Amino acid sequence: MLSAEQLRASIRTVPDFPKPGIQFRDITTLLSNPAALRTSVAMLAEQVQASGATLVAGMEARGFIFGAAVAIEADLGFVPIRKPGKLPIETIGVDYALEYGSDRLELDPGAIPADAKVALVDDLIATGGTALAATQLVRLAGADVAAAHFVVDLPDLGGARRLRDAGVEVSTLLAFEGE
C-alpha cells in the first residue's frame, strides 16, 4: 500500500484549468497507476465497512469507477446514480444547482432496499452539489445514507461541510487546501 503522500503525488495538478487561478486536480494519473488505484480503493473500502453500509452508490461518472471497485472490495452491492435519460425505466430524480446552471441525477428506486444503509463514493468533493443531490435521491428511495467517502476533498469549496450539515458523515483520503 502507498503512503498518503505517495497517493497525493499520484494526482496531477493542472494549473489554470478550466479558467485562470484554478488548480484542477486530475485523477487520471491516479487511475493509471495500479498501486495508487489499489491503495485508494482499499482505503475507501475500509471506511465504507466502518460506516456500517450495506450498499454502495456512486455518482456518474467517476463515482462509478471508485464506487464499483469499493463495493467489490467491501463485498457489497453497487447502485449507479445516473445522469438524466440513461435508464429505460421510470426513475426518481433530483435537480441541483451548478456554478453555471443546473443538472439532474436519477435513480432506479427499486435498486435500493428501503432498509439499506448506503455509502456514497466519488472521486472528489468540491462544492458538494452532486453529493447532496445523491443524498436526497437515496433518502427519497427510502434508504439511509450511512456516509459519503471521497478520494479528494477541496475544503475551501465547503462541500464536505455542507454534507455534514445535511447529517451525512464524510470521510476523505486526501485534502488539497487553498492550492
From TrEMBL:
Q: Which GO terms describe its cellular component?
A: cytoplasm
Q: Name one GO molecular function term.
A: adenine phosphoribosyltransferase activity
Matching PANTHER family: ADENINE PHOSPHORIBOSYLTRANSFERASE
Q: Which superkingdom is the protein from? A: Bacteria
The protein here is known as Adenine phosphoribosyltransferase
Q: Does the keyword Amino-acid biosynthesis apply?
A: no
User: Coding gene?
Assistant: apt
One of the protein's GO biological processes = adenine salvage
Subunit and interaction comment = Homodimer.
Q: Ranges for the Phosphoribosyltransferase domain?
A: 29-153
Name the reaction it catalyses. AMP + diphosphate = 5-phospho-alpha-D-ribose 1-diphosphate + adenine
SUPFAM superfamilies linked to this entry: PRTase-like
- Tell me, in a sentence or two, what this protein's role is: Catalyzes a salvage reaction resulting in the formation of AMP, that is energically less costly than de novo synthesis.
Its localization reads: Cytoplasm
Q: Per UniProt, which keywords does this protein have?
A: Cytoplasm, Glycosyltransferase, Purine salvage, Transferase
Q: Which HAMAP family match?
A: Aden_phosphoribosyltr
Species source reads: Alteriqipengyuania lutimaris
Q: In which pathway does it act?
A: Purine metabolism; AMP biosynthesis via salvage pathway; AMP from adenine: step 1/1
